[in-house]
Protein 1
Amino acid sequence: MTLLLTRPGDRRTSAAPPAWWRGRSAQGWLYAAPAAAVVGALFLAPLVLVAWMSLNRWPLLGPAALNAPGNYLKISDNPLFLDSVLFTLKYTAITTVLLSGLALGLALLVQERRPGVGFFRTAFFLPGAVGFAAAALLFYGMLNNDFGPVDPILQALGITDEPVKWTGTPDMALFSTIALVLWRFAGFNMLILLTGLQAIPVEVYEAARSDGANRWQIFTKITLPLLRPTIALMLILSVTGSLLAFDQFFIFTNGGPDNSTVSMVMVIYRDAFFRFDLGGAAALSVVLLVALVALNALQMRVLRRPE
Amino acid sequence: MRYYTTVSALAVLFLFPLVWSGWASLEEPGNYLEMARFGEGLDTYAANSVLVSAMTVTGTLVVSALGGYAFARFDFPGKNLLFLVTLAILMVPYATILIPLYVLLGYLGLQNSLTGLSLVFVMFQLPFALYMMRNAFEAVPRELEEAALVDGCGTFRVFLRILLPAVRPGLVTVGLFAFLASWNDFFAPLILLNDGSSFTLPVAVVNMTQRTFGAVDYGMLQAGVMVTAVPCLILFVVLQRHYVRGFMSGALRG
């Protein structure tokens, strides 16, 4: 939310407003009214509703009835949800580390102007323009043992000698999903880091170089500290996005094998639309919502601490 | 030289899946014909996707341009509160308010409706779009409109005639982000639409993996992937500059 701190063009004068300015308060409201209506009806109202739903027995069809705090109490009898919390945390940790590392590597590779660098930036980002659902289906075909090209290529290169069970075991399913996520999101995160890298003035590097600093020292003593706010933003986005993972597991692994790759949001979806228990799903939503808002606030405090 | 070997190898890794998918979809010419006949027919799904994207882009542009104008040029009570609440949409995980939105749209008679889905997309786009448009309007020098206002020109005419043309690059960026989000999203249409004839492309193509008649037709599936992905790839390559500007402006969470 440092977005709020910079307001280019905010030039307020202390002089009394000229004649044509009077009555502008009402006009301002009029122009902001559509935005206020959208935010009120489609953001604030559902926030209140999800809290209210979580206090009710709320079947998909039929009348609701107050049963607080039943929906919250039964979370502890929902073993699939408890497993999904652990699994989602594990997935989030691994993905965030690998994704940040890869994105940083890519950003450093393409940060300087050289011939052809624009092409490489586009190549790394291009998967990010593909919808995540389409990307998951692409990998679903690409890693299929009978149809996909990956097994024949690996065998021709002598890396494997039989088809790999890409989604056949819990560990491999997680590994393959992470490969999909890295392919789809590395370029996006690279772009975030590039904006940060390009905000570092060239003079800072020149000064360091003339003081005799080597490349490693420049990287650790100048680039990384100055990039800190950007890295913080990337980590927040990656952690939040991973904790809310749905598409990749719903489409690519379908939660399998043996429910080993069921994410938290998948359980919410299943409770709502397969068990027809909207109240229970709302309670899980509230828990996830509170946890994520708290986590976001915490991350911002820790990571954005001024130097 | 080692530099170019490394980046080229990486570029091959990143581009290979796209090239393979295109090739696999074209390997048998029947793939696209099969796909065109899948379910309710490709024309239905594509028309739904185009309609949802068009409504989302239009809605986002109208709401965020008017709102951006209000935030950049007017003072009114509740201004800061409204801005903060709009940005708070970013703090609240998307997936957690879709179930109440499903119920709420039912109250409004907009369940299983492409209009309802588009309204939800407009809401999710609003923090980025409003922030972007407010900055775009603030960057326009006030002198440009003050003369017109002193001459008695109404604020809406000033907005239409003088300011909108000046913020056109911002509108393109906002429109591009709104298009990519609404065209590609899978979770919101999965929850909010429940009738095959109203599905958008991502939901329809995912349905191709449901093995109703034996094996999954992988060639057809890749044709579906291509039909969904290619418009975005083209649009991204053409409007790349605008996309990157969306990042540069600091509004990164769109």
Protein 2
Amino acid sequence: MIYPTYTPDEARDRETFLALMWALSYPGRIHDIGGAAHTHDTFSAIGAALLDLETSFFTPDKTLADELLRSGARHLPASEAAYHFYPALDGAALASITQANIGTMLRPDEGATLIIGCAFASGSTFSLAGPGIQTTQEIRLGGIPARFWGLRERAIRYPLGWDVYLIDHGHVIGLPRTTQVG
Amino acid sequence: MTLSELTNERQGYSFGYLDAYAKRELRRRALKAIAIPGYQVPYASRELPIARGWGTGGLQVTLALVGPDSIVKVIDQGADDSVNAANLRRFIKRMSGASTTTDTLRATILQSRHRIPEEIMQEGQVLVLQVPDPEPLRRVQPDISKAAQLHADADYGQMWLGLYEQLVRFKQYVQGADYPSLVHGRYIMNPSPIPRWDTPKLHQAAHLTLLSAGREKRMYAVPPYTNVQPLEFDDVPFQIEDQTGRVCKTTGAANKFMNELPQDDGSATFELSDSGYAEKLKNDLAPGATYFDEQGNFYHDGYLKPPVRPA
């Protein structure tokens, strides 16, 4: 039997999506984004898997913005964009995150998705709990300023809030709005 | 570099039947559904070569997930061999090159109409449930816009009132399949028309459950290890269907969900509803652990309470 071709693009988008899906389903566990060796490649792969002309993004990184624009997605201000890409969290990035959309009570799914570069297995240890975690899950994260967690706590008034993917090279950790970080 | 290197070979169908835009949209929506357990995320719901109402919601989700490395099981009321399940399975295979199975524990994607298998699903498995009506509030609020506002306000008073009225009139909860359940303490969802027997299996499950209604264009999810609580009053607990005394005529299994087979003399015999599990028992293949053991005890101790009839 001849099956429709599983093209390299198709494979990359599907495997990236599956990594994001499992990362969000089991928060705190590290999942691999297939074939992406560097953080920038991972950002590109996520952009290719999720963005098209029906959605929008924000990133302070001009090179990445040029690349993501090729998907057809609109480059909008931080307050309006559905997907935020932050290769690193500096003061300007944190200022943008304060404006990220948290959705409405009628449409909490309009809350933004934040994709943030950081370093796993270094820095502070956090204990996670919530859906997707049987008891608790420990993670170590570097490159995330303490102020970020305060912003997250203020933004999330469940079901309102934004969801986060943390990226280190070709690896991803998901932090949906339901996850409590201690 | 030549033009042929830059383009894909022309083909009759996109991989997984759906085009790239449809799959991306489904995937974006699925991620938000997982992030907000039980919340109904709207999506576009494309046309498929089967009629709406025949599993198009579940099929679209499966097509967005499936790849050549997937192992797909499709069941309809527990049976792998019903016409609907067999055709969906064949279509998914033809559009993706995925392999298929009837073994619950081998499947990476399990699409189901109206049942959750008896064997305990594991981490890394996805259960895709076909949903005819995603709106649990339809019984008390037929206006979908007003129902959305009730969800937004977590205003479920009318649902509780309906439950109370059932107790007053019938001294028990009379909702059969599709029993409304509270997910992660926030949203009431319809768990699709699975029997009450299956509803507790969603609670703190190791697997991911995606529920999708193609006709109604709504998708929602129960992530792994998430609380799912069927609606009940503190003093009158939720009850599953009583399978006591029902023994499968071909395998001898007991305390599993049974199909009732009426006989000419007015009596009834029973057989396992889960055909994949029955197949293992018939062929002496060791089945996996089941949600309900041979004595009928649920695998989460204390989750199901003994029946109480109000005075």
